[in-house]
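User: Structure with F0G, tokens only please.
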Amino acid sequence: MSNLHGRRSTLPIRGVPVTLKIEMPETAHQLCTNPACAATFGIDEVRLSCSSCGSLLDIAYDWDKLPRPKSLSFFEGRWATKGTELTGTLDFSGVWRFRELMPFYRREEDIVTIGEGRTVLQRADLLARQIGMKPGSLFLQYEGLNPSGSFKDNGMTAAFTHARMVGAEKVACASTGNTSASLALFAALSEMKGIVFIGSGKVSVGKLSQALDYGGLTLQIQGDFDACLRRIRQIAVDVPGLGIYLMNSVNPFRLEGQKSIMYRILEARGWEPPDWIIVPGGNLGNCSAFGKAFMELRDLGLIKKIPRLAIINASGANTLNELFTNRNLRWNGGDVDCKKIGDLYAAMDESNYHPHTVASAIEISRPVNLPKALRALDVMNGVVREVSDDEILEHRAMVARWGFGCEPASAASLAGLVKLRQEQVISADEHVVCILTGHELKDPNATVKYHTGIDLKAAQDLAPRGPVHGKFANQPIAVDDDLPSIVKALGGDAEMIRGIKVEVSKSSLPTREY
Ligand code: F0G
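Assistant:
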């Protein structure tokens, strides 16, 4: 396991002055999510899983020793904070406004923020009418209004804060597009080296253009997202010489920031929880963060009611629905039946299955946060459904016509709501919040094709075709899914990977190995 105990970065993020403020005591640690193991690790350690049992990690707090608000309305006052000093900057962030609920950082000046999380919850009566719901019952949470255009910024701000705490200089992710856009933006603004692995031809052109524009070293790997993630995890863990800090949602700090989406929804509703939260599921980090947010708010006595959760898969990438709904896989107090997962993954390998959906953001077949998502479903009395590509496209068009629009994956939430209405799981007057995870302009191809039949997808293959003249031109590098070639592209050498198993096993369970 790599440990990035390098020098502490003291570079201020652009526009954020560094002033010494509160020095936090050691009241946070990393905790294995497997209750039977419950191993703990220091907050400064860089880990992707528990070294004892291989399970995912959580960030846990000694709440008794921490200053915490008596009621959630405490946070409202921060809307009024003005100014560019540190407190003003943190209060301006829709994530750090709630910093007492994610106090893993030691010093406020380590926090890396770019004004993320200033998103809105919009009452959507016009859309509600279209799907037979009562006025005042449907709400849309527009996470596409984040600086990089997706909910990922909520998590990146937290993971970059940890990266700065441990002195990381190179940060990387595998991505279906939004994580890479967000990482590249945060890396540029915090003066770290951003590296993104994307599946060749798998990322919508809007997202790819962002990674290039923000200066991320962009590797287009021959393979899909699952392959990219396996590879970057291998490199982060086994090639310490490259000093890479991993920013995917398997990093527990990312999910601390994503809890804030729930806080903002509560805040916008006057701290009255809705009946349902509906969210698209890909790598299952977001829904996991939602479950943790409500678990903690309940344990802190800050809410009385927990909303129900619906996680919506695309039919072409339906691992969670298959396991949860069809094969009855449950959290089971942390004793997850890994054989059920292993059997499904083995069958996928045998049939050479690859996920495929128009909602490229959620085209993922081996979600790394699966056990945490099961825990969230348990805590929030949740359900899982899958929706077809046609349903996704039709409901995306409806959000555009009667809302501000969203990218295809985000519309899975509305399509899922309609399905749950038809099944009478959700009634016409229940209060429902659909999370719109990404901005409409992320995937203009899908929109143009829907309206005209013209497929602009060729633009996604950005193999260099001719000379480029821009002073800041940042060409992507196409590379095979092959460890030596990738390490070379990252500036490493053969020495760094001497003795390392070059192949990564496809069938490994999500919580073990890579
Ligand atoms: N919606 C959008 C727009 C996304 O980009 C993603 C994930 C999801 C939903 C699913 O969220 O993974 O937490 O279940 N995108 C990742 C990426 C995988 O690389 O950008 P999840």
